[in-house]
Amino acid sequence: MKRSAAASLLAVALVFVAATPSHGWHGRVFIGGPVFWWGPVYPYGGYPQPYTDWAEVAEKRAMAQVRLTTEAALVSGCTRIGVVRDDSIKDLRRKIVRVGGNAGVLEFGVDDLSTVQAEVYRCTSTAKAPSNIPPPPAGAPPPPPPGPAR
User: Mutual orientation of helices 89-98 and 54-64 as an angle, nearest 10°?
Assistant: First the structure.
């Protein structure tokens, strides 16, 4: 359906309603008028956006699952895949995912302080806690210290 220029101008004029200002400004101010519906709501009315890169979404999800540590004991029992190096932790995680790992042991070099090296591991189960953590003390915890006197 084709609209005339006068109808379009009238529609635009109805969007803005002239109102008297509530304070001492000269002239008038415009406030929003009725809402006209000329198409679907952005983005695309509830449908997925056409520019969604599902591979990137899956890669970001996998990058969030990568565990980084400096303790080699935490990845004992995991399969070593290789070594990756980068100057950005985000890119380092991406490289770990691309080679098939889900854990990395970080090493910081002394010759080039801007890069981080990680040994990549693939762990099939949750990493076990180190065995040298002492058990909690028996009994109830001590009471909190008294508050300040008023």
Answer: 100
- The pLDDT tens digits for 13-62 are 655 444 444 454 455 555 555 555 555 555 556 666 667 788 888 888 99
The answer to whether position 149 is within a domain reads: no
Full domain range(s) for residue 66: 55-122
Nearest C-alpha neighbor of 75 from the set 124, 129, 132, 127: 127
Domain CATH number, residue 81: 3.30.110
Task: Give the whole-angstrom CA distance, residue 114 versus residue 85.
Answer: 11
CB 85 within 8 A of CB 96: no
For 59, the token pair is 């890669």
41: Cα separation from own chain's centroid:
25
**Domain total for the chain?**
1
| Amino acid letter for position 9 | L
pTM over 0.90: no
Instruction: Return d(Cα 96, Cα 62) in angstroms, integer.
Output: 10
Compute the CA torsion angle 47, 53, 55, 60 (nearest 10 deg).
-100
**Is 23 domain-assigned?**
no
